[in-house]
Amino acid sequence: MEKDKARSYRHYLAARFLGLLGNNMLAVALGWQMYELTASAWDLGLVGLAQFLPALLLTVPAGLLVDSHDRRLVFAASLALQGAAAVLLCWGSTAGWVGRDAILLVCLVTGVGRSLQLPAQQAIVPALVARTELPRALAQNASLTKISTIAGPALGGFLYAGGAGFVYGLCAGVFALGTALALQARLAPLARSAEPLSWTALFAGIAFIRTNPLVLGAMSLDLFATLAGTSMALLPMFAKDILHTGAWGLGLLRAAPAVGGLLVSAWISRRPMDQQVGRRMYAAVLLYGLATIAFSVCTDLAWAMAALAVVGAADIVSTVLRHSVVQVETADALRGRVGAAHATSIAASNQLGQFRAGVVAEWLGPATAVLLGGCATVLVVAAWIRLFPALYRRSALFSEQGA
User: Which has more pLDDT, 117 or 401?
Assistant: First the structure.
């Protein structure tokens, strides 16, 4: 039994890695292609908004779907849907009919896939590892996430020399392989929601989050800090107009945060952070904001990559601690619905944050937009210490739940 569970966990990790690799390759190709077509910061922001809207609309039904159906199948379906979107982009780019509106339409499709992918993959982990091993397992997951975030942008950026269609075609193959591996995982029977379909059942995850200050504080801290501080949508502008590099340089910039994150996640996997949880989380978000400010003033590619590496290192600490708190505090029957709400907050902080950055950059320029975002993140940290003191004071991860 343990051997089967270990094999399923490996299949899951491989599928997760490939799914995130495809996500990141798509992000680089979509951003660069859109900026080549329109040279508009506004349109770069719309790419993020188009991916966020499905996540917002599907938060509740996606969570209930994960809680009431085979999470492995939901995960596999999410990867297959994104693979189909990559096939469409490959066809359109090769045939020459892809334009601004077509890219935004496909971004909506990928947003639907992501809205299913994130809560499903979050809910699968506790079924494959012991509860006390969650921080270590989440650090391993974070390591793979960062590896995919290094390899994906680098591959996407360098292979873009062969054309957008080539990158999209490779993405389609990556998603197909990830789908096959996800179907190979076998999950033990889980405590699923047996509630009849009702408004109470649909919104049970949101109700739980609202009444748990630790979960609400952790999710909202990430939501508002990243919403204010994310600069990823503006990297094509930095690469082309400020750092004077090409698609390969954009790939390096997108990979730089993952390099910093990977180094830190490797350290965490050996020394799980199950003490001083709250203070470490707040300190990580503060460092994220300060590193974003440093990036905003960089005019050299190497220094820009170094600043982004610190951004990634801080982000991984915040991510592991946040996910650990959410997983420890959430009952298994609610994981899908809580995970869907969590996924929506992640999507809001990233995709909606990209839209925010694009709008501000259109008015004030990319460097000023990133500078203001970093300053806003620092202010969010100060405000959340006052709003959620219980989270700030949380010491041992398992203190309230027991090991």
Answer: 117
Give the type of residue at 189: P
- pTM higher than the cut 0.70: no
Query: In this structure, what token pair is assigned to residue 349?
Result: 């902080």
- Is 243 in a helix, a strand, or coil? coil
Q: For residue 41, which of 392, 383, 354 has the smallest C-alpha distance? A: 354
**Where do we find the tokens 């950059």?**
361
List the one residue out of 117, 128, 141, 138 whose CA is nearest residue 63. 117
As a whole-number percent, the residues of the chain with pLDDT over 70 amount to 82
Kindly list the distances between the CA atom of residue 304 and the CA atoms of 126, 145, 205, 345, in Å, as whole numbers in the listed order: 37, 21, 39, 27
Span between the terminal Cα atoms of the chain, in Å:
23
> Which pLDDT belongs to residue 376?
93
Provide the token pair at 125: 């982990």
Contact 30, 107 (CB under 8 A): yes
Using the Cα atoms of residue 363, residue 364, residue 366 and residue 372 in order, give the sign of their dihedral: negative
Structure tokens at 255: 């990979």
142-151, 165-174, 279-288: segment of lowest average pLDDT? 142-151
pLDDT over 90 at 335, yes or no? no
CA angle 284, 306, 151 (to 5 degrees): 90
Separation of alpha carbons 118 and 345, rounded Å: 11
Question: Would you call 132 exposed, middle or buried from its count of C-beta atoms within 10 A (0-12, 13-18, 19+)?
Answer: middle
Evaluated on CA atoms 132, 134, 139, 144, the torsion sign reads positive
Q: Which residue type occupies 211? A: T
Per-residue model confidence as pLDDT tens digits over 214-264: 888 888 888 888 888 887 778 888 988 899 888 788 878 877 887 888 788
Contact 244, 118 (CB under 8 A): no
